[in-house]
Structure formats: C-alpha cells, structure tokens
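Thanks for the sequence, V.! I ran ABC transporter permease right away. Repeating your input here for the record:
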Amino acid sequence: MVKYFKVWWLMTSSSVQSFFVSRIGAALFLAGKIIRFLFFFSFLLLLFTKTEALAGYSFYEVLLFYFTFNFIDSTTQMLFREVYRFRYYIVSGNFDMILVKPVNALFRSLFGWTDILDLMTLGPFILIIGYTLFKIPGITLIGIISYIILIINSLVIATSFHILVLSLAVLTTEIDHAIMIYRDLIGMGKIPIDVYTQPVRSLITFVIPVGIMMSFPVKALLGILATPFIILTLFVSLLILWFSLYVWRISLKRYTSASS
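Predicted structure:
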C-alpha cells in the first residue's frame, strides 16, 4: 500500500507540473468548469421561482443533490483523468511498456494522471454541502454517516465503470465514445431521479446505477432510504466491481501487442 501511494504521489506531482506549464490554459479550463456549474445552479434558482418543490423536494434538498453530484463527479475526474488518455497507449504500443513495469497495469492506467483543477474544486464543494446541510431540518448523525458511506460506495461504482472503459479500450481500441456516454448518463443524476417518469427511473436505478451513485447518498441523509436498500446498494457496488475486474482480466488475456 505504501509503495503504491508513493507511486501515485510521484505521478500526481508530474501531472501538477504539466498543468502549470500552460497557466493560461489551466485558468481557462478551470473557469469553464466554474461557469458550467454556475449555469446549472442559476437554472435551479430560476426553476424555484416558479415552484416551491421539485418531485417533493425543497430548494435546499435539490441543491444538495446537485452539489453531491458535483462532488462525486469531480472526485472521479480528478482520480481517473488518465482513462481519457488511455487510447493513446493502446494504439501507439506504449501499453506494452506499462505491462512490463513492476507496477500493477490497472493501477497505472487508472491513476496515472491526477487532475489538479478538479482537486481545487473539492474543497469549495465540501463547504457548500456543509452549508446546505444546516439549511435542511431533521438531519441526523446516522443520516450523515450513511451519506458518507454511500458516497464512498458511489466512488467504488465509478471506479468499476472506468475499469470497464479501460477493458473496452484494450479489446477494441475505442474509449472516447464510451467515456462520453458514461458522462452523459451520470449527468442525469444532477437532480433527484424521482423527477423522471417510469420506466426511465427504474432504468437509471437498477440497470444503469446512476440513481444508486448520485441520488441514494442524499436520500439516505434525508432519512427516506430504507436500510435494506442501503445494504443492497453496497452489495451491488461490490458485484459491479468484481465484474469489472473480471472483464479487465479477460481483456488482458486477449490483448495483442502493437508490435506483434
């Protein structure tokens, strides 16, 4: 564990230095993230000037869904930015070099690049989530603990999806469309999934676990998610993680080196 933390720290240090080579580009990219966040936040403000509730949720409860989504999304982008560059390693043959190095190939492919710009947004998201909690009555300690556990659970599911995307890249050399489809799907979790009608709601909860990732943590915090569903959520995340690792092992067995 210590060895891999040191490896991650070295790769993160390298990525941070690369970001600041072009300071103007980094600043524009960060500004784009902030503007995109503010646009949807403004949309929610405008929406609640016409209604007092959305799918039964108050203004601050809906904001909590949105802020939680952004925290989970930013965390995954920060940790797994290397996935977006993985296709280059496959088509250029550089993945061969990753395989022969004394570091787990999956670890290197997932954590090889840390997005410092997303890291910079995590602190503000934590602060505004904490502020929003004070605006919602009835929050309990058990709810907060369940919220934290299910956020970690959401990160496990996000990790599994990124492993599947890497596996697909090894098998087909295609990754760009897969990662964009993933991002479009989880974007549906910006608001409570209760907004969507059936069968879309069931589809993005039990087939594509967007609801489990983005909505269940907040529902557990608000005390409207039954304990059996929390346990089921943890089981589902472990099942998806096992499946993604299984597919990854199959993809490595079928990998054909660019030099062969």
